[in-house]
């Protein structure tokens, strides 16, 4: 797989198994109570146990937290051995959590202009997505796209994933325009919030690779 894929917001064992079977690089578990994809640490542990770990060829586990405290992250890590923390918080808190937990940290950043693109090399990766809007009930998972040309000439300080409103129908174009090497999707491969479709996951992965072929020629 040339373009790496993360499927986020998994709540069911069968969806974890579909991700593992299709060879996605990362699966995301949402620990934000306001999300329709929220899972408790106990539910996450069951999902984690349903598929091979990364050292046995399974996907890496990414835990998504919105403005978390150290206590919330530590209590979650006690139940489920996450590989990466995807954080919606400020840089200082994220860096402190990285040192406290000794985990890889990806920062999520909404981008409206090139000036919003991060330059800090302290993090292990970035999720680059649509900026929040007034009235949003959560900072992501809303199926909203942004101007993909913004990242076209960006010299990223760390590996990054393009996110926000990606679907099997637009992912090839998104990869082509943004020049990303990795994509992240939640709502675009769902039958309804939290319920993934194995068929849409398969289509999404296949189409994401089509975008890569064009810009690598
Ligand atoms: O998925 C959620 O419910 C969610 C809640 C809070 C913050 C982020 C969330 N999801 C992340 O948002 C992006 C884009 O999602 P979508 O494909 O537009 O639905 C992705 O990184 C999800 O992991």
Please give the structural blueprint.
Elements: E1 4-8, H1 13-22, E2 26-30, H2 41-49, E3 60-66, H3 70-79, E4 84-88, H4 91-101, E5 104-110, E6 125-129, E7 160-162, H5 171-178, E8 182-185, E9 190-192, E10 195-196, H6 198-216
Parallel strand pairs: 1-2, 1-8, 2-3, 3-4, 4-5, 5-6, 6-7
Antiparallel strand pairs: 9-10
Helix pairs in contact: 1-6, 2-3, 5-6
The structure holds the ligand O=C(O)c1ccccc1N[C@@H]1O[C@H](COP(=O)(O)O)[C@@H](O)[C@H]1O.
The ligand O=C(O)c1ccccc1N[C@@H]1O[C@H](COP(=O)(O)O)[C@@H](O)[C@H]1O is lined by residues 8-9, 28, 30, 32, 35, 37, 64, 66, 88, 127, 129, 138-144, 163-166, 184-188.
Any overview of this molecule?
- This is N-(5'-phosphoribosyl)anthranilate isomerase.
- Its EC number is 5.3.1.24.
- Residues 5-207 form the N-(5'phosphoribosyl) anthranilate isomerase (PRAI) domain.
- Keywords: Amino-acid biosynthesis, Aromatic amino acid biosynthesis, Isomerase, Tryptophan biosynthesis.
- The protein has 217 residues and is α/β, with parallel strands linked by helices.
- It has a single domain (4-216), classed as Alpha-Beta Barrel (TIM Barrel).
- 31% of the residues lie in helices and 21% in strands.
- It is built from 6 helices and 10 strands.
- The chain has helices at residues 13-22, 41-49, 70-79, 91-101, 171-178, 198-216; strands at residues 4-8, 26-30, 60-66, 84-88, 104-110, 125-129, 160-162, 182-185, 190-192, 195-196.
- Strands 7-6-5-4-3-2-1-8 form an 8-stranded parallel sheet. A two-stranded antiparallel ribbon has the order 9-10.
- The two termini are 16 Å apart.
- It binds ligand LGQLAAA5.
- Residues 8-9, 28, 30, 32, 35, 37, 64, 66, 88, 127, 129, 138-144, 163-166, 184-188 line the site of the ligand O=C(O)c1ccccc1N[C@@H]1O[C@H](COP(=O)(O)O)[C@@H](O)[C@H]1O.
